[in-house]
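Data availability (excerpt). The following record was deposited with the supplementary files.
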Amino acid sequence: MSASRTIQTKLVLPADINHLQTIFGGHVLAYIDEIAAITAMKHSNTAVVTASIDSVDFLNSARVGDVLELEAVVSSTGRTSIEVFVSVHSMNLLTREIKLTTESFLTMVAMDENSKPTPVPGIFPETENEISLFKTGPARREHRKQRGEMKH
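Predicted structure:
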């Protein structure tokens, strides 16, 4: 799984904040979608599309001047789908305080040159955290399936 691990660093700028002086959630979502796509493409060696943002938990806020560090790893795979776990931490550069700000799971689908879903390789968890993410993957997949079957 380490071959697909991706880390990005972003600076929170004045244009990124909302009326409460904290980072706008939409910006964080865009960062999460981007890093998930990069991670899934590294894993599949092909283009991917976002099939779903399965969960997003905003846990703490970030403010202007904070640095966001996003880390993404493939947590589970299906035949053509790639589940990616993304965590976002913020750091106040003056105090060095680090906070977990956001956690998210996304499902990406690998696409071939004809824009059709294409098979992806499986994963081999290496760390304790990766093993935990991998073992809980089937339950998240079942939850996605049930959510998709719900009538609107």
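Summary of structural features: The beta strands are 6-11, 47-58, 67-77, 81-91, 98-111.
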